Structures are given as structure tokens and as C-alpha cells.
Design the sequence.
């Protein structure tokens, strides 16, 4: 992603969300999973970069699809530039990632990453359809969607790190499972976050936040566990602009249905399952991997 | 089988068209197999297949197969790469049509018109990912390198094209040709990859240079 690449503005747009920050959880996981089986992480560096690039590409396209205007405290690519730049910068990022893994990776790594990319598209497509009719979504289907949209790449990150480090099949499988649960835990934590920051955010953006986001398990759970009048209120949130008073009423609905607590508990359950996936594996950085799961579920 | 009439115009103007048709029908089978509907994302797969079903010359896969044959090998060896290259081409058509807001392609409504913008974005992404999966499985590093750098160049080329369209007075012939080469770079990749799959080495390189100039 050298700054000298031409056309410059296209590469500027592509690198914009990367410059704005982000947790870098996926590349970290590639490196940690590699370290877990060999003690050395340097040889996983290029795949770690490729996976973060793929993640960035999906963020740019998803933000455009969901019409989100901010990401990581900065304007999204389609806001800072325009829709077409968002499409092309996402495309060029995925092509760059393909270039990196074409050069340096074993067939198992390439296979895992390509599979994850396919699942991410399927997952985002499901997310879009859920958003159109959130009242028909079950928790089970929602979690399946998350497994594709978020879980697939986080899983691939851990799996690839293990493969690159030369881990045994048993080790790689354990790391992949760990990644999969970590991804679920992460997404549910994000769902809660979205609702909480929406509640405290400036009132003008409150409504946009709720309308703009993809589907969210807090809303879905609340809908399925509320009475008729509360459901009507939630439905109006999904579909149209509502004033701030009604948004405050909505937060009461979430409280009545204990939805935030429910999703938090679920996130913690997946954290536990992530830890259990690596239990007794004696990875070189066992403790760090366990702590990372805790961090993801709680921050 | 499937309701496609591939390569009709191109083939009817070529000699040996029955032979070529038979070869391309294997590519059609592959395209349909790869994009077999997934129950979890049916619309997405339908939308991805939509421009393929509407026809198209299949020039790129044909070029891959013929280049493979040209270096003395069985064209079937180039089948995966031919399929991947047509998938990439289709992805670029879907996204380019969306960017240019073209409403028709191959006599049928474009994907963002027939479905919607979101589906057009995601089906393009899916097609690129499927292509990546195919070349990940079946191709040597040289082919993977050519295909992926072709994808990069196509995005760069489409951007240049977008700029030219908004301010044609700034475009020079030199820049226009530069853009055209990048945008249709997939042809370059198709020829070279087919030859490499057929075991041609130095000769494959000459294919690539030939198509560039």
C-alpha cells in the first residue's frame, strides 16, 4: 500500500480506514496463533497483513451498504470520498490481499482465506436481509449470520496462524475453534456497544445510529420478548425516523426485556467456549490467548 | 441444462465454431457449478449468475483455453483458470455498471437494476472471492500472481476511466490507452495464464507481451 501507488487518490481512500485506527484483532490473532505453536511470529506477518486488508475491504463495502457515516471516529470512505470510490477501494484492497497470499502462502492458508471471503459476502447479504425484517429473525439464524459475517475471518486468522507456524492438525483445529468463538463473542459485544453508545450519543445522531446499523441481537431479542405495544415502538425504530422521546422509550423496552444483559451473557458464553477450545493445549502463549478472549468479550 | 447462449456473436464469425463451442460449454458447466445456489444466500448467488446467464462473448475463457492449446497441451488444464477469469470479468462488469449507472448489459437489466445496489456490491465481491478460491486450489504461483495483479490493475483502470468520464477534456490519448490496458487487463492475464497452465514457459511470456502491445 505504498503511498507512491497510482492512482494516488484511490490508494488514499483504501488506506483511510486503516489510518483511522481499529483494534487490529485479526492480524494480532494470526501472529499469536503462529507464536502459539512455534514461538515465532515473523513468518506469519504477510498473512496477518492480508487478513487485515480483507477486513478493511469488507468494512468499506459494508459501511456503504449500511449507509454508516462514521467508523473509528472518522468519516467512512463513501462519506469522505464518494460511493464509487468506496466500491473501487474495497475492490482494490481485496485484490491486494489476493496478491499477498498468492505469493507467500501454502494451499491450506489460501483455501482458508478464500473460504472466509466467500462466507463474509454471504453473511453480509444475510445481514442486509435481516435488517429489512428484523422481526422475523430468530436468535439461531442471527448467530449463523454472525458466524459467517464476523466469525469466518476471525476463525481463518487463528487457523492460518496455526498452519503457518507448522502446528499439528489437532493444534490448528483447536486454534480455529478458538477463533470462531472469539468472533461470535466480538460481534455480540459490538452489538451491545452500538446500543449503549446510541443511548448516550448526541440526540441528533441517535436516530441515524439505530436506523443505519445492520441487524443487532439486542433489538432482535427485545422484539421477541416484548408485548404488542412495545413491539410496535421497536418496529417504528426499524423503519422510520422517530423523535428523541420515543428513542428514550425504546431504551426502556430494552431494559424490560433484559436484552442488553442477555446479549452480554451470550458474549461471555462464547468467550468461555473460546477458552475451552484451547484448554490443555499448552500453547506457548496459552495465557495471552486466554486473556485476549476475556478482553474481547469485555471491551 | 442452463439457458445460456454463450459467445454467439464471436463464435458465429469464427471458423471451427463447433469445436470452440464444445470447449466453452465446459466453461459454462464450471461457472454454473461454482455459483450453485447456497440456501443461506440464494439471492446473492442468483444475482452473481444473472449477467453470466444473459450471455456474453466468453472471449477471456476462450483465450485461456486456446493459449493452453497453443503451447501444445490439453485445453482442459486451463479450465479452472478460464473459469476464474470469467468470474473476475463478471465481477468487474457488475461493479462498473453500478459505478457508471448503466441500466442494461447484454440485453438484460444490470444487477443493480434487476436487484439493488447492495446486492450488486456483494455479488461482485462474491465473484472475486470465488475466483480467488479457484486459483488458490489449482494454480501455480505464477498464475496466481498474474491473476491477482490483474485484479489490482482493473480497479486502477476503472478508477481512471471514472475520472476520464467526469472530465474528458483532461484525458490525453496516452493516458486513455494506459487506462484501457489496465481496465481490460484481464485479457492479458487470460492469455498468459492459459499458456502457463499448458506448460509453456518463455513462450507464455511472449503471449503476455503480445497482448499488451
Sequence:
Amino acid at each position: 500500500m505504498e503511498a507512491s501507488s497510482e492512482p494516488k487518490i484511490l490508494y488514499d481512500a483504501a488506506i483511510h480506514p486503516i489510518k483511522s485506527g481499529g483494534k487490529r484483532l485479526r492480524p494480532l490473532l494470526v501472529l499469536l496463533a503462529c507464536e502459539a505453536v512455534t514461538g515465532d511470529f515473523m513468518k506469519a506477518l504477510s498473512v496477518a497483513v492480508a487478513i487485515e486488508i480483507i477486513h478493511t475491504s469488507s468494512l468499506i463495502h459494508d459501511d456503504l451498504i449500511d449507509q454508516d457515516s462514521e467508523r473509528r471516529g472518522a468519516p467512512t470512505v463513501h462519506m469522505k470520498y464518494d460511493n464509487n470510490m468506496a466500491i473501487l477501494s474495497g475492490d482494490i484492497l481485496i485484490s491486494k490481499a489476493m496478491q499477498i497470499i498468492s505469493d507467500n502462502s501454502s494451499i491450506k492458508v489460501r483455501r482458508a482465506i478464500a473460504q472466509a471471503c466467500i462466507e463474509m459476502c454471504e453473511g453480509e447479504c444475510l445481514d442486509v436481509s435481516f435488517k429489512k425484517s428484523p422481526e422475523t429473525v430468530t436468535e439461531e439464524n442471527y448467530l449463523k449470520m454472525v458466524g459467517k459475517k464476523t466469525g469466518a475471518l476471525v476463525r481463518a486468522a487463528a487457523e492460518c496462524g496455526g498452519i503457518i507456524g507448522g502446528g499439528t492438525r489437532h493444534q490448528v483445529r483447536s486454534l480455529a475453534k478458538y477463533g470462531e468463538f472469539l468472533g461470535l463473542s466480538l460481534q455480540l459485544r459490538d452489538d451491545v456497544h452500538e446500543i449503549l453508545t446510541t443511548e448516550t450519543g448526541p440526540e441528533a445522531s441517535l436516530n441515524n445510529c439505530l436506523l443505519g446499523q445492520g441487524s443487532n441481537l439486542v433489538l432482535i431479542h427485545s422484539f421477541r420478548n416484548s408485548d404488542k405495544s412495545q413491539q410496535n415502538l421497536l418496529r417504528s425504530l426499524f423503519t422510520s425516523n422517530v423523535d428523541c422521546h420515543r428513542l428514550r422509550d425504546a431504551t426502556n423496552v430494552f431494559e424490560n426485556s433484559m436484552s442488553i444483559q442477555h446479549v452480554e451473557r451470550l458474549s461471555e458464553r462464547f468467550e468461555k467456549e473460546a477458552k475451552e477450545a484451547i484448554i490443555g493445549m499448552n500453547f506457548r502463549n496459552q495465557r495471552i490467548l486466554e486473556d485476549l478472549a476475556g478482553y474481547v468479550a469485555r471491551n | 441444462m442452463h439457458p445460456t447462449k454463450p459467445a454467439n456473436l464471436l463464435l458465429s464469425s469464427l471458423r471451427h465454431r463447433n469445436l470452440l463451442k464444445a470447449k466453452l460449454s465446459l466453461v459454462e458447466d464450471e461457472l454454473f457449478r461454482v455459483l450453485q445456489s447456497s440456501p443461506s444466500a440464494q439471492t446473492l448467488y442468483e444475482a452473481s449468475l444473472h449477467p453470466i446467464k444473459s450471455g456474453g462473448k466468453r472471449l477471456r475463457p476462450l483465450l485461456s483455453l486456446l493459449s493452453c492449446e497453443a503451447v501444445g497441451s490439453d485445453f482442459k488444464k486451463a479450465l479452472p483458470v478460464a473459469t476464474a477469469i470469467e468470474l473476475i470479468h463478471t465481477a468487474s462488469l457488475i461493479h462498473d455498471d453500478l459505478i457508471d449507472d448503466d441500466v442494461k448489459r447484454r440485453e438484460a437489466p444490470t444487477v443493480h437494476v434487476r436487484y439493488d445496489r447492495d446486492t450488486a456490491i456483494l455479488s461482485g465481491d462474491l465473484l472475486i472471492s470465488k475466483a480467488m478460491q479457484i486459483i488458490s486450489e489449482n494454480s501455480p504461483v505464477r498464475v496466481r500472481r498474474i491473476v491477482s495483479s490483474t485484479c489490482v490493475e482493473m480497479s486502477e483502470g476503472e478508477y481512471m476511466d471514472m475520472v476520464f468520464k467526469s472530465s474528458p477534456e483532461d484525458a490525453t490519448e496516452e493516458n486513455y490507452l494506459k487506462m484501457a490496458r489496465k481496465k481490460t487487463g484481464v485479457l492479458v492475464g487470460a492469455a498468459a495464464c492459459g499458456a502457463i497452465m499448458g506448460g509453456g514457459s518463455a513462450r507464455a511470456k511472449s503471449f503476455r507481451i503480445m497482448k499488451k502491445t
